[in-house]
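Possible race condition, two jobs.
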Amino acid sequence: MQDAAGHVLIVEDEPRLAAVLGEYLQAAGYTHHWVDDGACAMDAFHAQAPDIVLLDLMLPNRDGIEICRDLRRHATVPVIMVTARAEEIDRLLGLEIGADDYICKPFSPREVVARVHAVLRRHRLVPGDMPAPGLRIDETACCASVDGRPLDLTQVEFRLLRTLAASPGRVYSREQLMDRLYADHRVVTDRTVDSHVKNLRRKLAEVGGEDWVRSVYGVGYRFESNRSI
């Protein structure tokens, strides 16, 4: 079902638009599956195991906001929300539902393909692209290992490692990390993030991992490998 580029779940109730998106995605090397009913979105997600979800906001039977929140409770799959009204973007951002990107209709199908590619590049970590020697992160299974030794991580610790490792050298503030760690966007303090970092460092050390998570005084944290790969 999946190819080298990735598998896209399109949740869109406009058949013509969905067909055009499917054609452009296919031309770019992606496979795709389409559903037109919000009530079917989660069943399709579990059946298809997509690499990314294109999710319309206004859907019959169940809206995109509710579906996105449900996805965030079950998986870390990237989500691009689609809306027909530009003013909805501000509302979606305010709700902090956990989407990775937002696109407003009407749009160019080429732009959508470019956004899909960009979001997947930020999220996807394959063995050849690992930012540190011995580290492996499995997005599908939500697990990680160092030199074959599994890391016993909580969901929050896994998201923390995945976020930092996806952009080696990038400094994340504590606030930016908080936005990425909690699917329900609960209110937490800087000390909570520091505690998760401390636990992640300890668990990395227990399986022979190095101190890849570095503190940046007064700013936050970054991922940095001590050795060349």
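Job #2 (started ~2 s after job #1):
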Amino acid sequence: MSAIQAYVRTTAPRGRDTERVGPFLATYSPGTPHPMLNYAIPDDGARPTPAEIDALTEAYRRRDLLPRLEYFTDVAPELEKLLVGAGYGLERRVPLMTCTPESRIDRPAPAGIRLRAPESDEDIRRMRVAQNTAYGEAPEVGAEEVERLKAGLRAGVRHALAEDSSTGAVVGGGLALEVVDGTTEIAGIGVLETHRGRGIAAALTARLTREVHEAGAHTAFLTPGDLGIGNVYARVGYRPAGECVHLSLA
């Protein structure tokens, strides 16, 4: 678990401003207050003092951001109680799932669906629109976000999109972050509601997981948002390995 948390500490700050606040690495994404892009990560075994928690809270408040943390509970088992005592509330508790090359189960794309890497700026834009829509977010994707995603591709991030073979419409997508010390994260798996229940999410996950394993990763991990999608990931070889908590102070 410590290796996976170390991976997050390495990759989460990419493209963000960072600051050390006591036993925390605070990350801030320029230009967006989105809580999933602005959060702190504790050191292993973190047991902050009340003053250190107050300093972390103030670091986010002075940037007009929600004070927020995401971390794997096993690496700092005493931290949640300390944060709750300081007024932080639990947003959600989600499972951590991992997959090794030995446990991976390949899943082909269902009939009528083609999986491929994006090949142009327009592919990237359409893929991101599908992901945003799948997650209930605003579908608009500007040129700045396309450039950010292209920079990620150059840094080793892998993307896959799902395309309806009959219409050419992009109906889903996902990504695998860069491999660091044999570890990587699969994220952003999203499929339009009109195309769910056909195995597209499983096929996207299997494809990306196979690609990172072939690139040398010994551990791929993800954090499903709910048990239903967790069952999808289990079908391609992911197994429970711990939990991740999100806490914030409104």
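The chain has two domains: 2-87, 113-241.
Logs attached separately.
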